[in-house]
Design goal:
By secondary structure, this protein is mainly α. It has one domain. Helices cover 78% and strands 0% of the residues. The chain is built from 5 helices and no strands. Helix 2 crosses helix 4 (72-86) and helix 3 packs antiparallel against helix 4 (72-86). The model is unreliable at 5-14 and 21-27 (pLDDT under 50).
Length: 105
């Protein structure tokens, strides 16, 4: 009887994992990096920084085993590039300063 319960839990865990992987793959197929980059170019600095903050928070919830298929990290890389392009030579300093201003207000 106990073995059956264990098998049931294992099956549920595998089913949940497969579901997460399918969702990540579907999310990846819907992601168009070029469109996303175009959208970034039209954002204000505050919008861009807020998006980066949101993506960083979302990345904390991405399971380790689906990180390679999650587009959250690809989006973070594109936002980092947009910030670095917009603020040449400053890397992510403007974003870090924005974060500091928001936490002290």
């Amino acid at each position: 009887m106990r073995q059956s319960g264990l098998n049931s839990m294992t099956t549920k865990s595998l089913s949940l994992k497969a579901h997460e992987e399918r969702n990540a793959m579907a999310e990846r197929q819907d992601f168009d990096a070029a469109d996303f980059a175009d959208d970034l170019a039209t954002m204000t600095d505050d919008e861009l920084f807020a998006l980066m903050q949101t993506l960083e928070q979302e990345s904390e919830d991405v399971a380790v085993d689906v990180r390679e298929t999650s587009d959250v990290f690809a989006k973070i890389a594109l936002v980092e590039t947009a910030i670095e392009d917009r603020f040449a030579g400053q890397l992510l300093a403007p974003y870090k300063e924005w974060q500091q201003r928001r936490t002290t207000v």
